[in-house]
Structure formats: C-alpha cells, structure tokens
Amino acid sequence: MSQHAEPDYASLTATLAAINARIEVATRDSGRPPGSVTLVAVSKMQPSDAVLAALRAGQTCFGENRVQEASAKFAALRADWPDLRLHLIGGLQTNKAEDAVRLADTIEALDRPKLADAIARAADRAGRLPDLLVQVNIGDEPQKSGVPTADADSFIERCRTRFGAKLRGLMCIPPVGEDPTPHFKALAALGARNGLEMLSMGMSADFEAAIVAGATHVRVGTLLFGER
Ligand SMILES: *Cc1c(COP(=O)(O)O)cnc(C)c1O
Q1: Residue pair 124/101 in contact by the 8 Å Cβ criterion
Q2: 1, 123, 128, 175: which is deepest, by most CB within 10 A?
Q3: Given the CA of residue 207, which atom of ligand 1 is nearest to it?
C-alpha cells in the first residue's frame, strides 16, 4: 500500500466544467448576460494539490474561511498565478483582521463595528484595502455570524462612509432546512436599495436558486472538491 497516496483529481476538470455550465444556464434564466456570475471555489480543508488542480483547470477565484489556512495555501501560489483571487468567507475574528487585510482580495465577513475598526486600522498599516462585503444574518439566527437584518441598512451606511467604493456588496448564508429563495431575494432587495452591486449567495446545494435571485458570486465547495 502506498504511504503517500495521491488524491485523484482527474475528474476535477470535468466537474468544474459541469458546474460552470449549470451557472451559465441559471445566469441565462436570471435574464443576465453570460459571465455575470463568478464561481468562488471554496477550498477550505482541501489540500494545496486540490487548489493547484483547480487552477490548472482554469479556476481563478477561491474562498477560504480561516486566515492561517488560507495564507499557508495561497501565499506561495500568487507568484505563479497572477490572476488568482482569494475571498475570505465566514466569520472573521477581530484579531485576524490584520492578516486578512494583507492576504485577501475580498473580505466577505464584515458584520460589526469592531471588525470595521480593525479592518480600517489594518488597511492604514498595510497600505491596502481589500474589497468588502457586509455579511447579513439573513435568517436572524442567534448562533450565526452577520449583521442582524434590522441593523443592516444603518451598518451598510456606516461602512460606506468609512470605506467608500471598497464596500462592494453583501453576503449571506440562509438558515439550513429552509427554502433559501426568500432569503436570497431579501438580500438582493437590501443590496438594490443600498446601491450595492455584489451579492455573494448560494452554495453547493442552492447556487442556481441564488443566481436566479440575483447572485453575482456563488460559493461552491463540496460539489467541486468533494467532501471535506
Ligand atoms: C464552506 C462554505 C461554503 C461552501 O459550502 P459547500 O456546501 O461545501 O458548497 C460556502 N460559504 C461559506 C461561508 C462556507 O463556510
């Protein structure tokens, strides 16, 4: 038995093509032009080899939810893959803001004033500010990250004042076990009335519904890379 079994990524190229085809169909169904939706390949808990296989298959945008893991996997790839874009998704601890600002192209987890403070301070020190998405707790679940829906408009306004055009949009994760479409529509409405163009919503199980509701970014992990 081999001690260093190579994971089998032979099918990853075909899987990626199939997901991209489904994204195209849903984009058309949403009445938008082809290419309106970006696939964020969620590579958390997947080895660097899986990321490399996806890059070789043409995928450029990746999502991770732990800063340290993201840094270990992606920092070294930047030189060889200049088109690579890294999104940090899921809850972000304030004490990770410094590393997040240095590493990420987009932070999808802005959900409270203290984190906004930490990101602003880190951006001053680092001399760079990633694109920012406000994460909305769209189902107002007690255990979930995200600004409560009742506070969302005012928090978005504060973030716009502070970050200007770097505040690009909204992100949400609907409650498990509910029809996600009303939640996706609620996020789209919130984005529209605040003039925000990016909507990161939809995962492996519901990305097509998210696109039909207006998603510009879908975050797909399991369907592309397999179980974590
Ligand atoms: C893990 C994760 C995903 C990907 O979920 P899959 O069901 O594996 O596609 C998307 N968004 C966030 C915030 C995640 O943490």
Answers
A1: no
A2: 123
A3: 9
Percentage of the chain surpassing pLDDT 70? 96
Give the position of tokens 């058309």.
Answer: 28
- Residue 8: what pLDDT? 57
Atom of ligand 1 nearest to the CA of 65: 15
CA distance 16 to 70: 21
* Domain boundaries defined on the chain: 9-225
Predicted confidence (pLDDT) per residue in 86-111, tens digit: 999 989 999 999 999 999 999 999 99
> Is 107 within 8 Å of 85 (Cβ atoms)?
no
- Ligand 1 centroid distance, CA of 37 (Å): 17
**Number of helices (H) and strands (E), helices first, in the chain?**
9, 9
Instruction: Please identify which residue in the block is written with the tokens 């996806």.
Output: 54
CB of 219 within 6 A of ligand 1: the answer is: yes
Q: Could you tell me the pTM of the whole model?
A: 0.96
